[in-house]
Design goal:
Number of helices: 5
Strand content: 15-25%
Low-confidence stretches: 174-189
Distance between the termini: 72 Å
Helix content: 25-40%
Order of helices and strands: HHEEEEEHEEEHEEEH
Mean pLDDT: 81
Radius of gyration: 22 Å
Oligomer: single chain
Number of domains: 1
Length: 189
Amino acid sequence: MGILILLVVLAAANFSHIDHFLRTGHFFPIEIIESLNNPVQVETWTADGLVSVGGRTIPLPGVTRLPETSDALVEVKKRGIEVAEDGRVYGLVRIHHWCGNDPVREHLARIDIADLLRFLGEGEYAVPSEAEKYRDPSRLGSFSRWGWDVGEYYLYRQWLGLAAELDRPTTEPGSHSANPRPAEAEMPR
């Protein structure tokens, strides 16, 4: 009888962990927190780039004009940016895992801001990407006060892989191809 009472008390004390386990398969919530190296606070942005609190304009590589309005840039500027050694500019974006069965409670993703804007179809770019035709900007940009929709974030991650594959230079100058297929005669049977 004493063991039964002890089990009931322990179960009641850990109900939130048991409930979480029954919903997600994990006893404790998962936190995915990425960070920035030497973050710079951003006050606003102009067509030419992000403007730091100190007034310095930081251009995004490959982006010739930033959008006038952008929910993505509003989200990015909340936590500052990082200018990497190669000149790429990264920011942190909160990812909204909205499903109660998702074990992730907190998710901050480190994202290349130029790639994010290209994926969303925001801004203008020096060089077009072959991958641009494989996304529909009218259906993108699901940012809320809780962050970027997790489904759209994972779609973005898949699109990045596709863009890397499609925009990879091949042996022929000026040619881009996802998976160059051998000529019919060269194909194995």
